Backbone:
């Protein structure tokens, strides 16, 4: 993958991590509420743990080493990048002497070898192997 896709990879991995964490917390809270008579102390412990983990993830996140890298706000991850213009396709006629239909000479051995090497575009039929 080209290096310009690194921000996308980081966004996807961060989103996946957040979804797994939130889903696990929701399941844990559900099990605590359904499975215990007094869920209050357990819910306080879960809330404290989630808060500490979120704070540590925020403080220990990776930051760009270079100061020249622009800081992007979190909402710019969801925007599309600038549209790149496609390079123009220029069609030009090649004037190779000796290869046109106006020559009256037979092809040389070298030209025949070139035609044989580069003209092999035949693909075997799939039905041919079934017989």
Residues:
């Amino acid at each position: 993958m080209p290096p310009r896709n690194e921000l996308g990879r980081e966004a996807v991995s961060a989103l996946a991590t957040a979804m797994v964490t939130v889903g696990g917390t929701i399941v844990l809270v559900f099990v605590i509420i359904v499975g215990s008579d007094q869920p209050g102390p357990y819910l306080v412990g879960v809330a404290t743990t989630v808060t500490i983990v979120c704070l540590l993830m925020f403080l220990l996140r990776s930051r760009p080493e270079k100061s020249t890298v622009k800081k992007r706000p979190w909402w710019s991850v969801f925007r599309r990048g600038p549209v790149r213009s496609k390079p123009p396709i220029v069609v030009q006629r090649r004037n190779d002497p000796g290869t046109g239909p106006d020559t009256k000479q037979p092809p040389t051995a070298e030209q025949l070898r070139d035609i044989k090497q580069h003209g092999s575009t035949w693909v075997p039929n799939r039905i041919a192997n079934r017989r």
Observations:
- The chain has a mean pLDDT of 76.
- DSSP finds three helices and no strands in the chain.
- The radius of gyration is 32 Å.
